[in-house]
Amino acid sequence: MKRWFEPLLTAWVGLATHKLRSFLTILGIVIGVAAVITLMSIGRGAQTEILSRIEALGSDLITIRPGAFTSGGIRSAPGSVSTLTIEDAQAIAEQVPDISSVAPSYSRSLQLVVGSKNTNASVTGVTAEYIEVNNLKLASGTFFSGVDYQRGAKAAVLGSNIKETLFGDTDPTGQQMRMGGIVVRVIGVLESKGAMFGSPDDAIFIPLTAMQQTVAQPRTARGERVVSSISLTVSDEEQASYVTDEITSLLRTRHQLGPAADNDFTVTSIEEIAQTVTEATRTMTLLLGAIAAISLLVGGIGVMNIMLVSVLERTREIGIRKALGARQRDIWIQFLIEASFLALAGGIVGVATGWVASYFVSRTGFITTLVSADIVILAVSVSVGIGLFFGFYPAWNASRLNPIEALRSD
Amino acid sequence: MIQLQDITKVYAMGKRELTVLRGVNLHVKRGELVAIMGPSGSGKSTMLNLIGCLDNPTSGRYYLEDKEVSRLNGGELAQIRSRKIGFVFQSFNLLPRLSALANVELGMRYAGGSNRKRAMEALDMVGLSERASHRPTELSGGEQQRVAIARALVKNPPLILADEPTGNLDSHSGEEIMSILTSLHAERGITLVMITHEADIARYCQRVIHLKDGQIESEEKV
Predict the structure, then answer these.
(1) What is the mean pLDDT of residues A292-313?
(2) How many CB atoms sit inside 10 A of residue A51's CB?
C-alpha cells in the first residue's frame, strides 16, 4: 500500500503547491470534457427524439406510394403518377404473408363549408382499418366502422389541426359540414400526432365509399380504381424487409413491369426509415463529439505545457531524489501520476459540468438532451488517456535528467 | 570499502574533451574518515560523484564493498545509492515544500519505504526532534544541514559522502556539524568521505588527500 500511497502523496503535494496553475490546467480539461458531454448528449437526445417520433407512426407500418426513381435517377414526386389501385391493396392482403391489415387511401383537396367558414382541405377516403394501421388515437368521438364503410356512411373524423381551424375550441361531434357535393357529420377527432411527414393532423378522414359519391375516383387503363397510397402493418416487425420485398415483386407482376423497367411505386417501412435516421444521427453525434474533442485536445496540450514547466522548475528536486536513489522509473511515475491526476480531476469535474449544462439545454425546451453512461465513460477515459499521453513526454524528460547536472541547477 | 583503480574521467565539452581525472588510485578502508582537499577545478567534486555512484568513470575500475560498480547502468547505480550511500551537500538540498521530518523520510523513500519512527529517531540523533514539523525555510543554515545529515543517516548506509558540508555555514555551526559527523563516524563506524576547503575542518579527519589537476598530489595522516 505504501508503494502506491507515497507517489500519490508526492503528486498531490506537487500540485497543491501551485494551486492556481493546477486549477487552470484542470479547467482546460473540464471545458473539453464538458463540451464533449454536452454536445454528444444533444446529439443523442436529438436521435432519441426523432426516433420516438418515427416510432409513433407505428414501427410495424409499411407504406406504398405511387411513383419512383426514374432511370435518370431523378425522382418524380410520389403521387404524381397514379398506378396504385384498390385491387393492388386487395391482392397484397390476400397474397403476401405476415401482414395483419391493409388500408388503401385516396386523398383529394376539397372545399369545406362549415357555417360561415369556407376552406380547402385534404380529404382522405379510407377503410375502417386505417386508424389501426396508422397507429392513430381518437381524442373524442369514434372512428367509422366496417359497416359504415360498407354503407358509404357520410361520417367524418377530423385531424387535430383542421378541427382547430374549423371549430375552434367547441366540440365538433355531431356537427354537419359540406364537403364537395355531400354533407357529412363529424363523428370524431384524432389526437395530435406531431409526426413530421404527411401528418394526419391536417387531414379529414371519411369512408372511401362515401368519397366515391362526391369525387369520381380515377381508374387505370385496366379499369382498376386508383388510390393515393396503401398503408399496411406487418404482424412481425422482424419480417418488415421480407414483406417489403414480397410486396415489390407482387406489384411488379401486377403492374406488368419488365425486368428492365423501374418500379412505378415506392415501398417504405418505418423500420427502414428508423434505421437510416439512426445511422444519420449517430454520424451527427460523432461529428459533434469530434468538434468538442478539439477543445479536449487543447486542454491536453495545456497539461503537457504545465508538466514541462513543472519539470524544468523542479530539476533540482529531481536531482535530489536521484541522489537519494530514485530510479528513472520512480521519477517517471511521479510526473505521470501528476499529469493523470490533473486530467482525471478535469474529467470528473467536466462530466459534472457537462451534465449540468445538458440539463439546462434540455430546460430551454428547444432540444432534448440525453447523457448516457457510454458518453460519460468515454469522456473520462479519454481525459485520463490524454493525461497519460501528454504527461508521457515531460515525465520521460524528467526521468532522463543527469543527477549531477540536475543538482547543480538553480 | 572504496577502491579506485586508475580512474579517469573525460567530459566532452562540445568538440573539445576535458580530462578531469587522470589515473586516480585510492583505497579507503571501512570506517575511515577521509578529507579531500584541493583547489577548484582539481576534480574533487567529480571524484566524489564517481565514489557516490552518480556517474561512471571513463576508464579504470571502482570497487565498492568489493563489488565492481564502474560499469553498472543508471538503474543499478540508483539501487546502490538508495541503500549504501548517504549524501550531504554544501547547499543542503532539502525540498523546501516538505517539513524537516518529511525530508528525512525522503531519505528512506527509495530504500524500501518510509518509516516515520525511524525518521524521528534520526532527527533526534542530530538534536532536531522538536523542530520536526518546521519547513527548511524556518530553520537556520546549521539546522538545515543537520536535517540533511539525518536524511543521509536514516537508511543506515555504510558510506556517507559530504561535499563541503560546512561551506555555507558560520564557523560555530560548522564546528557543530563536524562534531555530529565525527561522532557518527565514531559511534556507528560509518565510512565518511568529505570535500573541504578549510584546513580547520580537515583536522577532524584521519587522512587528508590533496588533489591537483585531476591527480592525487599528496596524502597525509592526521
Answers:
(1) 92
(2) 17
